[in-house]
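Severity: low
Component: inverse-folding endpoint
Summary: output formatting inconsistent between runs
Steps to reproduce: submit the following structure tokens with default settings.
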């Protein structure tokens, strides 16, 4: 990745990138660094596009990659967690996702099911009208390794009905895949760049081979040995601390590891919270870790609002589930989400005002504290310090709000506030499942 970043800074941008592997945190960090280098924050409304990787619309993808930038600069299309490289070896994971989504998100379950059909060699026509009952356990096990399929009668008829009532078809899309490969080989319009992220890929697929020929492929292998995980995590932690002008004592590092198990996502999330917790002090010590890390509800609330600001849908849903499992009332969660959206809106207004000197989404925290934070304070002409105002917040809160606000437009944030009002009414007056209502809002706001 260091070589890739060096080339990007020199202006050498490949037409296509594929970042894949088991280490989701490192993949997302690398993706964000790539975007920070090649897409200026001010241009992102017109130059950066995210597509749903779980059910990639190939027509829409092709249309995006062949359309030149409106501003004449970069035109970056990101397809996160794509299933285009999925193989039969991943069938069990798809089945698990179908089962887990069939009740609360049937549309998503149906998309996973169509992906499963494509790689399994089945068709909707073959399975409908009780055709699925003709599949033997041996046939099923040959497709989904380790799954005898005893319980498929519980969910398979339901997912087939969902597909039928939704008008979904299992068109293979082979012609569209070939067209996508041809476009990549022929070359994208000047300034266009396509970025895929994926958990796993089948290297036998033509699309994978095409990207290795014309673009850049980076694999993030699972770091299984604890000492190796510690070393990589320390490197990432050191970068964060250096950017914030902070240090961490050896005892604090050991204490953090005991609480997080050196998990990438949780450790970095806790470290960001520790930076905010110690305020102006330069050193994080063991007592800080003991005091600030491990207050479970606060941890998960922080993780939820952080994931919302970063548009990290999966992390947001996971944090929401953890908070609800801890017994936190849904209206308290709604209040925290509303607070985060208001801060993002205020930050976006400040960014759009053009009065912040040399604002950049990739700015370092130390530079922000010294240069930008005083300028933010000067814009508070009323001098008021109220809880709901961004001017009254800790510098690290303001820092995160400004950086994350460029992922949303002002109009979108206003719409989200209106939707939160409707959500509050529903939570207070209807018998709908609170978790389902909150999940739906997070899915929409992070899309």
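Observed output (run 2 of 3):
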């Amino acid at each position: 990745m260091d070589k890739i970043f060096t080339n990007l800074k020199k202006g050498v941008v490949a037409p296509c990138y594929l970042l894949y592997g088991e280490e989701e945190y490192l993949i997302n960090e690398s993706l964000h660094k790539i975007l920070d280098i090649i897409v200026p924050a001010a241009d992102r409304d017109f130059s950066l596009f995210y597509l749903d990787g779980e059910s990639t619309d190939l027509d829409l993808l092709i249309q995006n990659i062949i359309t030149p930038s409106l501003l004449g600069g970069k035109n970056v299309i990101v397809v996160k967690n794509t299933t285009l490289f999925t193989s039969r070896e991943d069938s069990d994971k798809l089945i698990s996702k179908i089962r887990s989504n069939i009740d609360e998100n049937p549309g998503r379950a149906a998309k996973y099911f169509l992906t499963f059909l494509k790689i399994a060699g089945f068709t909707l026509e073959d399975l409908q009208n009780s055709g699925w009952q003709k599949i033997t356990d041996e046939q099923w096990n040959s497709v989904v390794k380790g799954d005898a399929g005893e319980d498929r009668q519980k969910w398979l008829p339901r997912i087939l009905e969902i597909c039928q009532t939704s008008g979904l078809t299992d068109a293979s899309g082979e012609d569209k895949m070939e067209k996508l490969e041809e476009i990549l080989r022929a070359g994208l319009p000047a300034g266009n760049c396509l970025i895929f992220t994926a958990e796993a890929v089948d290297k036998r697929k033509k699309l994978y081979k095409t990207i290795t020929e014309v673009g850049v492929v980076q694999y993030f292998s699972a770091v299984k040995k604890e000492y190796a995980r510690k070393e990589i995590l320390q490197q990432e932690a050191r970068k964060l601390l250096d950017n914030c002008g902070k240090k961490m004592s050896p005892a604090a590092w050991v204490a953090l590891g005991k609480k997080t198990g050196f998990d990438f996502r949780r450790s970095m999330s806790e470290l960001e919270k520790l930076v905010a917790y110690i305020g102006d002090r330069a050193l994080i010590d063991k007592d800080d870790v003991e005091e600030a890390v491990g207050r479970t509800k606060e941890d998960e609330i922080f993780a939820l609002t952080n994931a919302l600001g970063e548009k990290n849908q999966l992390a947001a849903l996971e944090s929401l589930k953890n908070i609800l499992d801890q017994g936190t009332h849904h209206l308290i969660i709604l209040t925290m989400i509303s607070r985060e959206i208001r801060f993002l809106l205020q930050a976006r207004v400040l960014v759009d005002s053009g009065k912040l000197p040399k604002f950049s989404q990739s700015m370092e925290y130390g530079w922000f504290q010294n240069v930008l934070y005083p300028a933010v304070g000067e814009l508070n002409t009323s001098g008021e310090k109220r809880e709901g105002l961004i001017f009254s917040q800790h510098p690290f809160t303001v820092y995160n709000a400004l950086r994350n606000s460029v992922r949303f437009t002002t109009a979108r944030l206003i719409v989200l506030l209106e939707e939160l009002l409707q959500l509050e009414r529903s939570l207070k007056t209807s018998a709908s499942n609170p978790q389902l209502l909150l999940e739906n809002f997070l899915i929409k706001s992070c899309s």
